[in-house]
Amino acid sequence: MPHLDLLRPEHAYFLGFAQTDGNHYAGRGRKGHVAIELSERDAAVLHEFTTLFDLYSRVSFRQRTTNFGPHRSAVWTVCDLTFRDELIQLGLPTGHKSATVAPPQVPFSVPDYLRGLLDGDGSVGFTRTGRPFVSFVTASQPLAEFFCAQALAVAGAYRTPRRNSRDGVYNPMVAGDPAAPVAQWLYPDGCLALERKRDAAARVAAWTRPEGMRARPVAGARRWTTQDDADVFTGSVRETAQQLGRSEQAVRLRRWRLRQGVRAT
Question: In a 10 Å sphere around its CB, with 0-12 CB exposed, 13-18 middle and 19+ buried, how is residue 53 labelled?
Fold first, then answer.
């Protein structure tokens, strides 16, 4: 009998969490184990994992010294072979996995699975300027594309996954108005989640745009058309900005790009 049913919210959440924050170790022969290590402050979710499946798993604690000083962590561990085989089939391979993991190929609870991914390698909160956001960091193109697809489906927010030039990972983010419905969809009341991220998501979900704060286009950057380029040099910068419905800074930048022969939108 299978241990995991990904249509169950808590099982889908577990798989997403394990794909991002877990490690699947293969030992000699049939030996091996799956481990998820978190800071002690997040140990509650690991204790929840011990109750999800009809098999033995445990939570232990360890103390070590890092570059930032003493650190105490909690580790959830399971060794059951049939459970580990199921995880491999569903998308948690042994060994290095960060660039190869992908959404499961069987039906699954989408918001719960994505919440697990974000609790493992995502962020929910507010920028220094007070804008709400939901973001995800991954080396996996399929996972980055999955995040962007859900942002579009839930909030109409169009995001294109691109690797950053610094370390080659994806960091898709939904910020501003679309972040509220995404956070509400991902973190419903009573869901299995890291408590601190669930609390942050509740604040993001309740956010409304302050009066006077400029809204960004939900579908991403507004493209410059051929007609816009034809009109961008008419009149002063202020007059052109008013005519085209753009900021004066955008008009100045577009004029400079056109003079330099750069027509990227």
Answer: middle
The CA distance from 124 to 85, in Å, is 32
pTM: 0.80
- Residue 33 sits at φ, ψ, to 5 deg, of -160, 160
Band (pLDDT 50/70/90 cuts) for residue 265 is: low
| Alpha-carbon span 64 to 12, nearest angstrom | 31
Coil vs helix vs strand at 11: helix
- Which among 103, 109, 121, 124 has a CA at the least distance from the CA of 11? 109
Question: With contact defined as beta carbons under 8 Å apart, do 18 and 117 qualify?
Answer: no
* CA–CA gap between residue 126 and residue 200 (Å, rounded): 9
User: What is the band of 27 on the pLDDT scale with cuts at 50, 70, 90?
Assistant: confident
Q: Report d(CA 172, CA 137) in Å as an integer.
A: 7
- Rounded to the nearest 5°, which phi and psi values hold at 71? -140, 130
Q: Round to whole Å and give the CA distance between 205 and 184.
A: 5
Plot region of 173 (φ>0 → left; ψ -120 to 50 → alpha; else → beta): beta
For 137-160, what is each residue's pLDDT tens digit?
999 999 999 999 999 999 999 988
| Cβ neighbour number for residue 90 with a 10 Å cutoff | 20
- Rg of the chain over Cα atoms, rounded to whole angstroms, equals 23
